[in-house]
Specification:
single chain, 303 residues, alpha+beta, Porin, 19% helix, 36% strand, TesB_ACOT8-like_N, TesB_C, Acyl_CoA_thio, hydrolase
Length: 303
């Protein structure tokens, strides 16, 4: 794998910079009380709140309550109900433990009901650790072509006039480039349960380390379903396809700069009972393992 001499010209355009800046603003929660924060949602196709957004915001909420110098190393999330995109989300953080080098937090995300009262839409626990020395080993990335030679989402979907296609091509703050054939509009026919994508922010951002950790959580939710869909011969436009995340686990082995390319290798070992499981590994440009992800989701095709 080689390091590019310069960023792709299309990723430094004013529109791309605006979309990337919008992601940083989305993760900049307002503190409304002690250990209570509030965030908003960006519009999404289908009128729902993107799960990665809530995970990223919850990561920021928890991270603001831990002692200085501790960064997240693991999180586990449950998606309880679909969020309403036009209603602010409240994140309430509980201190579960502060030890000599580790801190554990729980955050609950809620929204006000139109008829009054609150409903819980999401729960996450996270563990944070001071930087420490220790044993070192890690898997290496598989062989993959450099991302600069792969088509952008906008290039893959060029000429397709559909609101979802336009959103994927122009409004996603993460640049996603498929190593395996994209399945936006057609199955790839391989019946493979494995896929690889390169990811980074759509344009360079300047943000504190906590936001970079939150962006990894945000981006990790975009493509895990595709390993299941690829194995089953489906695409995102398969009639009757319904998919929703149930739970999502992340382990940060090393901390990364979200401006740099990450290779996301995904494999689905099982689908049954209307659910599918995907395991993912994220590697930096040098081939080092930086994070591990697991996701279980509801996935069904209604006839």
């Amino acid at each position: 794998m080689t390091t590019p001499d310069a960023p792709d010209p299309d990723l430094t355009s004013p529109d791309a910079r605006e979309v990337a800046a919008g992601l940083v603003a989305l993760l900049d929660l307002a503190e409304i009380d002690d250990h209570v924060y509030q965030g908003y949602s960006n519009p999404q196709p289908g009128g729902h709140v993107f799960g990665g957004q809530v995970m990223g915001q919850a990561t920021v909420a928890m991270g603001r309550t831990v002692p200085e110098g501790r960064r997240i190393h693991s999180s586990f999330s449950y998606f309880l109900e679909a969020g309403a995109p036009d209603v602010p989300i409240r994140f309430t953080v509980d201190d579960l433990r502060d030890g000599g080098s580790f801190s554990v937090r729980r955050v609950l995300a809620s929204q006000e009901r139109p008829t009054g009262g609150e409903r819980m839409i999401f729960a996450m626990t996270g563990s944070f650790q001071e930087e420490q020395e220790g044993l070192e080993h890690g898997e290496s990335a598989p062989e993959a072509p450099d991302p600069e030679g792969l088509p952008t989402t906008a290039q893959v979907l060029a000429g397709i006039e559909h609101p979802v296609a336009r959103y994927w091509a122009t409004q996603r703050p993460i640049d996603i480039r498929h190593v395996t054939d994209p399945i936006y509009i057609r199955p790839d026919g391989s019946a493979s349960a494995t896929q690889m994508v390169w990811m980074r922010t759509i344009a360079p951002i300047d943000a504190p380390p906590l936001v970079h950790d939150a962006i990894l959580a945000f981006a990790s939710d975009y493509t895990p379903f595709e390993a299941i869909m690829r194995r089953q011969g489906l695409s995102w436009v398969t009639p009757g396809l319904r998919a929703a995340t149930i739970n999502h686990g992340i382990w940060w082995h090393r901390h990364v700069d979200a401006n740099e390319w990450l290779l996301y290798v995904q494999h689905s070992p099982s689908a049954s009972g209307g659910r599918g499981l995907t395991e993912g590994r994220l590697f930096d440009r040098g081939g080092g393992l930086v994070a591990t992800v697991t996701q279980e989701g509801m996935i069904r095709v209604k006839q």
